[in-house]
What does this fold into?
Amino acid sequence: MGVQMNTVIKKGFFSKGLRLAENKISRSSPIQEMKLPVRVLILMQQHFGEPCDLLVGRGDRVLTGQIIAESQKLFSAPLHATVTGTVTSITKAINPFANNIVNAVEITREGQDIWTELKPDKLISHASEDLNRLYSYELKNDSKDKQPVSADVRDSWRNLTEAINEADSNEIIEKVKNAGITGLGGATFPTHVKLLTKKIIDTLVINGCECEPYITADHRIMLEYGWKVLAGAYIVFKVLSPKTAYIAIEDNKEDAIELFGRLIKEAGLEEKFKVVSIKSKYPMGAEKTLIQTVIGKKVPVGGLPMDIGVVVNNVGTVKAVFDAVSEGLPLISKVITLTGDITNPQNVLARIGTPVIDLVNFGGKLEKNSSRVILGGPMMGNIIVDLNFPITKAVNCIMLKKTNKMHESNCIRCGRCISICPMNLMPLMYALYAKNSKFEVLRDYHISTCIECGSCAYVCPASIPIVAYIKTAKSVLTGYGK
Amino acid sequence: MENKEKNSENLDKKESIEIKTEAGVSSEGARAVQKEIKKAAARTYNENELLISHSPHIWSGFSTSKIMYVFLASLMLPTASAIYFFGLKALWIIIASTFTAALVEFIIKKIRKKRFVMDGSALITGLLLALTLPPRIPIWMVVVGSAFAIAIAKEAFGGIGYNIFNPALAGRAFLAICFPVEMTKWYLPQNFGADAITSATPLSEGFVFEGSKTALYKNLFFGNTAGSIGETSALLILVAFLILVILKITDWKIPVIFVATVAVMSLLWGDDVLFQVMAGGLMFGAVFMATDYVTTPVTGIGKSLFALGCGLITFVIRKFGAMPEGVCFAILIMNGFTPLIDRYIRPKPFGFVKEKPKKVKAREK
It folds into this structure.
């Protein structure tokens, strides 16, 4: 028990924010692999930054994992064919996450996967084989309770960490870049950019908060690929060489906190890694609030976490980093939660580019009057109307929601939005001035600091769609800026 | 202008959607394909179209009308004390005032061709006004005051959320200016049917209390004293305040700072602090009037400043003014300052630094 106390730290006084009903209805359903889709549509910009240039043309045959689009710019991540097949068309599609229109490649699948040549790291992949065997046995037999740490596991971990220590940092970064890994929490910031930073990093935070209601994808990743998450985190740790790494998990995921406390012990990384149990509050998973809660520093306005020596990575991202470094696997699939008013809420592993309709049908039939399909969680998700829209790297949840009629009434200036705003802003002013088209005034109210978490609109008694006003104002203001 | 631009942008997007769906299909076949898609969607969802809305897709459900009705429920405590101490006459005042308020709001909404929502705010205005009136005021005056409160002080400014001054207090001030004699006739509390005995309010100069100080405090605390019908019982107002704070309807800052300012100033001036706090409309005004969302600042610091100003003005009017009581006008004056306070008191954004880090900008490019 004594060691356990050392690895798990309890934290989480954050005066702002919301306590939301969790509704994590799919939390105990294991990740299921979806059968391969007939067609995939791959958008040319699935990350924060520059869109990619196409490398293939119509009629070309592509293999699974083959790079089909790339950009020479730093702020981009290459895209891969997620199935084996032929490029049937090159079209345009709206990217609801960046609000722009991008090229898209449609690939029609032929038969099963034929993988392109992968470049695994022999040492790491060899060392991880044992761990894979041990932990998958454990997962199947569900015997993780109070099992003493076997010497076997310790040895395997030692092999793995040594193999990672010996690997070349530049090679790792190159591999991460080629695998097209972006932040999988939703912001899709290219991961290799974070690894390439020249600033001195003293803290690494692995984000396993998943504060949005309903979503359980990260929770399942932590439970089922826990050791891969830790190994991936160690790879990032090796590249950035910070002093400490924190794995931040909200306290509504007790099992994950326990698991990581145990994994860190087994891996012998107690000195470098700590699990932080955080009081669950929305939006704790947002980078800025998370950093403030875990290490007590504030990211300056307009700055990045790197500016204060912190790098934050999502658990799904570090798992992808591990796969990319050890097996050379590119990012072609994602764990997605199917939830809401659906008959069979669950977590699935789907290929990027799979049409949403396939996933919806996989999760069962829509219940009656479920007439909104949301990509993402209930607080920040985007509505789509075209169910042929594909899964992108930013999607972590597909939620179906019944309509609820809301009537916008006058602002009564109750100040609730101000008292809960995690960024300390005045959301009521955004709604007021955006309604009157006085967008320029909003710069004085620091509108660019807003993270669009939706807390203000959630608490608004007049049910004013504040986030909608903020998004409109932001797009108008950036349009003026150009 | 912006809207137009937005629309044209949307049009562009729509066109590109069409291009996208038509891709790879001949133009004649496109419509058939789209029909098929719609049919397929209808088969799957029993609905032809999916709806669009904006994030967040869930809502707390704590609506304006719920807030108003909780507030109204808490007002039942001083209402009960009004009826208990001042009898049926008080009940008629309350009924006349609330009914007029709701009716006038309904009529004005119809005239302005706006949707009428019974959100309870008009009832609150009417009830608040009634509770600040003297017990023997003629009913027609109550009706006039209530109509003024809703029609002029609230709806003329644009309805709920847009009024600058607290409507109930504006109505009271209107009555106090128009009918100064009736508005200052005070009576000792009596139960149903008994003869009325005129008396001065505790704060006016002619007030004499025969008895010990403890008895005076006791009367003030439980409400057995002359004054406006709803303001006399400090105990019930305190209970209502606690309920409102616990239910997170009211911020504790305004009432506490308001009353504390008056108390501290009285202490410095050598007055009887407990008497100054409990007598008159201070408690009632601080809990129910100065906490009105619409007419008070939105930030915590702004609210504190507002309450401080209210306290100071109340003290000054009580001490040096011609009127015995100053709560009403203190709050109205500070209502006027609310937009100014909100303009200059703004919260500091998360991670705000005065000079923007230039290096970061370079990186982003």
